[in-house]
Write a structure and sequence with these properties.
mainly alpha; globular; disordered C terminus
Length: 665
């Protein structure tokens, strides 16, 4: 039976903690897995929207959340808001730990609904949750408008339950005092989350599942701190107003101090994951907080946090010593590391194209060395390894290019993969990671382009990396019976992406292959076929096969060694179709048996037809400019007489209906 929210609110207003505990426990059990609250209403609404869509063949707007409301469930929404408001007043007082815990759990469930966040995104609510989550806010002063909003909230509560008036107003006063710990650092209660910005889609369940056995080992204060932080994460993620108020209230400063205490603590806190999650959310959603954290030496501190999590042991220079006998890192630890990596990406990506000074270069090389170690780790479960490596690759692709030399500047004695006396273990792992994501074929722009860009830039700057990747991706050609895009190897998969519908994916795949060919047009066409290569060549003005002035800056990056052709390629070279990149079957000559005069006549008729189609804007002929780019042909082909043009018009009139409606380039 669905718990009665009005009865719950009445019990809260009466201050009956035992009854509240029983009722909320039933409520939480009922809605623990829910992201909306009335399944029947939701189903009816979806059916109604489907009928409207079938009738109108158009959808006015996408739903804003899983709990978008209409007139049918507006009353349920109001009850949820009143329940959230009552709970926020209730938790401001002195409660039994078990009651506080169940109240925060209910608030977490309510915080999943964007439409019901009104009571939870006020200044008082944010300060209360932060204090219960163990965040000591410095110089926080609730503004007058916030106090007025809280008074309005309590008055609205009293209108539903007469007895709630005095209780809520007293709770507001207690809340104001409790929400300002005066810098004492007194940590009280707990935290967690259900969604996040870049990685977690809205509505996705928390990746760190609840573990009742683990929570039984924790004290009540720690459990409540975690639960409060879970609520705070939900509110910050789902409410733009809460994001803005959190920035104004300087929530980041108190959170950052709490995170640093957890990093330097000898006893790791079980709630550190949710502090890191909230740190990620704030820096992902508020640009000014990214800059603020960067100015607070965020990169340096979070790099130290990575070292502590992974128990890093340093060798000479920027080398992290590996231990083949070490056990795989646990799921919980890999999740903490992932949150750190995501936050580091938020504050470091803006420096990707900048030339760092000596101090910053040392800092980023230090971080790159730790990231190299992350790539070579093993985890409990393939999914966790995939996620950890994905965040590592994203961060590596955001670091200054000049600092990535540490990926290969390590000892080669124990390397499993080598190239020209250089350790290629890290590059090989990146290659394997790219191959896995190619085979999955899901969300290519989000999941594949970072590793493609990383390999491209590394290959452009580091000769050994380029040679190793070329051996694996573009080995010497021996089979010319199939087109490059039909090949099942890594080359074939990347060539297929060169004609992908997503422009970013297409460009990144083509750029990697072009760099592996040392940006040589003829070599690029040899491995991909002119048809696949035309897009990149046209974009860079290389259709004429000559390097333009813009690309000349990259010449110095490549050695002058020549491409070594196989014996098979030399034998088949004359028969390879440069457009398709394979040896085509012999085709009959369509002009066989025609005299020279007949061939010239056919050519003139063709030119006249093209002129006519161009004048009527059915096709747009293109020509190659001196810069090697395709441009529109604005003139008229010569050689057509008036009679021939009239004859070509008659030929066009005989074309099938609809064939002249398409523009052809």
């Amino acid at each position: 039976m669905v718990p009665d929210m009005e009865r719950i609110i009445e019990s809260i207003s009466e201050g009956d903690q035992d009854t509240v505990l029983l009722l909320l426990d039933d409520y939480n059990t009922e809605y623990a897995e829910c992201f909306f609250f009335n399944a029947e209403m939701e189903e009816r609404k979806k059916q109604r929207q489907l009928e409207e869509f079938r009738q109108n063949k158009v959808r006015d707007s996408a739903p804003d959340s899983d709990s978008d409301i209409d007139s049918d469930d507006e009353s349920d929404l109001l009850l949820r808001e009143h329940l959230a408001r009552a709970l926020l007043c209730f938790i401001s007082g002195q409660l039994q730990p078990a009651v506080l815990r169940v109240c925060l759990h209910t608030l977490r469930i309510l915080s999943r609904d964007r439409q019901a966040l009104g009571p939870m995104d006020s200044d008082t609510a944010l300060l209360t949750l932060a204090h219960l989550g163990g965040i000591s806010l410095l110089q926080t002063c609730p503004q007058q408008e916030e106090e007025e909003a809280e008074d309005q909230s309590c008055r609205a509560h009293s209108q539903i339950h007469e007895k709630a008036s005095s209780s809520c107003e007293e709770g507001a006063d207690a809340d104001a005092g409790a929400a300002i710990p005066n810098g004492s650092g007194h940590h009280c209660y707990e935290r967690r989350d259900d969604g996040s910005h870049v990685v977690l889609a809205r509505g996705k369940k928390d990746i760190r599942k609840e573990n009742s056995e683990e929570e039984e080992k924790e004290d009540d204060g720690e459990v409540c701190r975690k639960e409060a932080m879970k609520v705070l994460c939900n509110v910050i993620y789902n409410s733009p107003r809460a994001q803005e108020r959190a920035s104004t209230l300087r929530l980041l400063q108190g959170l950052w101090e709490s995170v640093k205490q957890g990093i330097w603590s000898m006893v790791p806190s079980s709630g550190q994951f949710y502090r890191l999650r909230l740190l990620f959310l704030l820096t992902a959603l508020r640009p000014e907080l990214r800059l603020q954290l960067q100015q607070e030496r965020g990169v340096s501190v979070l790099t130290k946090a990575l070292e502590h999590c992974l128990a890093v042991r340093w060798g000479e220079g920027y080398e992290v010593l590996s231990d083949s006998t070490a056990p795989p890192i646990s799921k919980e630890m890999s999740q903490d590391v992932s949150e750190i990596l995501k936050t580091l990406f938020n504050i470091a990506h803006r420096f990707h194209m900048q030339e760092p000074d000596e101090e910053d270069a040392s800092l980023y090389r230090h971080l790159a060395a730790v990231l190299r170690h992350c790539l070579l780790l093993s985890c409990d479960g393939e999914d966790m390894l995939e996620e950890l490596q994905g965040h590592t690759v994203n961060l590596l692709s955001a670091l200054p290019l000049t600092c990535l030399d540490v990926l290969v500047s390590v000892r080669v004695e124990q390397a499993s993969h080598k190239c020209e006396g250089v350790n290629m273990d890290c590059v090989h792992e990146l290659l394997v990671f790219m191959d896995r994501r190619l085979n999955k074929g899901q969300k290519l722009k989000e999941k594949l382009t970072p590793v493609l860009n990383l390999l491209t830039e590394s290959s452009r700057v580091h000769r050994e990396t380029r040679h190793y990747l070329r051996q694996k991706i573009l080995p010497p050609l021996r089979d010319f019976a199939i087109r490059p895009e039909q090949d099942t190897t890594l080359r074939g998969q990347l060539v297929r992406l060169m004609t992908h519908v997503d422009t970013d994916v297409k460009h990144c795949a083509a750029e990697l292959l072009f760099v592996l060919c040392k940006e040589n047009v003829s070599r690029f066409v040899k491995y991909t076929g002119y048809g696949n290569a035309a897009g990149l060549l046209a974009a860079r003005g290389l259709l004429n096969g000559r390097r333009n002035s813009v690309d000349s800056q990259y010449v110095s990056h490549y050695s002058s060694d020549s491409d070594s052709d196989t014996e098979e390629y030399r034998e088949a070279k004359a028969r390879i179709n440069l457009v398709t990149g394979r040896v085509e079957a012999e085709q009959p000559d369509p002009m066989e048996g025609m005299t020279e005069e007949e061939r010239e006549e056919e050519a003139r008729r063709l030119m006249c037809m093209i002129n006519r189609l161009s004048q009527e804007q059915i096709i747009q002929p293109l020509v190659m400019s001196a810069e090697g780019r395709l441009t529109l042909f604005s003139g008229q082909m010569r050689g057509c007489t008036l009679e021939e043009e009239e004859e070509s018009e008659e030929d066009l009139d005989l074309m099938p209906e609809g064939s002249k409606d398409k523009q052809v380039e």
